[in-house]
Amino acid sequence: xxxxxxxxxxxxxxxxxxxxxxxxxxxxxxxxxxxxxxxxxxxxxxxxxxxxxxxxxxxxxxxxxxxxxxxxxxxxxxxxxxxxxxxxxxxxxxxxxxxxxxxxxxxxxxxxxxxxxxxxxxxxxxxxxxxxxxxxxxxxxxxxxxxxxxxxxxxxxxxxxxxxxxxxxxxxxxxxxxxxxxxxxxxxxxxxxxxxxxxxxxxxxxxxxxxxxxxxxxxxxxxxxxxxxxxxxxxxxxxxxxxxxxxxxxxxxxxxxxxxxxxxxxxxxxxxxxxxxxxxxxxxxxxxxxxxxxxxxxxxxxxxxxxxxxxxxxxx
Length: 316
Ligand code: HEM
Known about the structure:
It is a single chain. With 316 residues, the chain is of the alpha+beta class. It has one domain (15-306). The chain is built from ten helices and twelve strands. The chain has helices at 28-48, 65-68, 106-120, 153-160, 184-187, 192-199, 217-220, 259-268, 296-301, 311-315; strands at residues 15-23, 55-61, 83-85, 88-90, 97-103, 124-133, 173-182, 234-235, 238-241, 246-254, 283-285, 289-293. Strands 1, 2, 5, 6, 7, 8, 9, 10, 11 and 12 form a ten-stranded antiparallel β-sheet that branches. It has a two-stranded antiparallel sheet with strand order 3-4. Helix 1 runs antiparallel to helix 3. The two termini are 33 Å apart. Bound molecules: protoporphyrin IX containing FE. Protoporphyrin IX containing FE (HEM) binds at residues 140, 142, 144-149, 178, 180, 199, 201, 206, 217-218, 221, 233, 235, 248, 250, 260, 263-264, 283.
């Protein structure tokens, strides 16, 4: 049976290790096999350290996908939507592979990361390596809860995963990753009330702030589809940082190829009156890449290349 990768809809963990890799050779057969072996590594670490709640996701860059799996390309596999308006920008920094490792133990994330790097050694270069962590009760470093409205159960799956109507890519997901850097010094010059106005939600109850305005992040992100339903997007972001710099690793999963782009447009270009997302005055995206995370079945099934039939065989 087709199964989604476990990390896509997993509940939040205490730690995450994000690896962004570029493939440096053209040995696509080896990469296909190693992606399948990465799934086996996720399972192995999950079984050995069941209390750590290990989950993982492998996603293939939208620009690398046609090279890796030319025989099966998802519809609407768009590159990251590079956008800029005045000083607000979402740079596109395409990347071949995204590997998300999450667990309740930092040492397990690290050990699994090392094992994966060892597996892909010689085939890849490490572009980015971010260790993120759960902060307080699931907050961003700005002090606000991250995605308290993420749905659960079947609703979560239907928002994050492609359904049966596309059998080849069923249980796959469109993934967008942005590494944000926060200007916390500037953020801290705002009063609590002003911060809530920028976010459009209160810190305590996560409800709409009575004073929310069109430029509040929550308001800019409340885009709905033709049926007035929220756009399908599951937010699995986690903060990272040390005493020098801080930020958020934004990671979203969607059943739709275009939901992220619509939301990003609403943030950067704003509405007809030019009301852009005020949060962008305090956080800036340093990277941005689009990926597709296929089902477990797809990765395993495409790991062994079917032998090419010879002419006499075809004529038989
Ligand atoms: C540094 C970057 C970001 C931070 C700190 C951030 C933080 C937040 C916060 C605090 C909320 C309100 C949650 C609540 O109390 O209901 C929220 C909502 C939301 N954000 Fe962001 N966000 C960031 C980037 C993004 C990006 C890049 C997108 C998509 C393009 C996005 C999409 C959404 C959506 C759809 C909601 C409303 C639904 C929900 O609550 O999950 N956010 N965000």
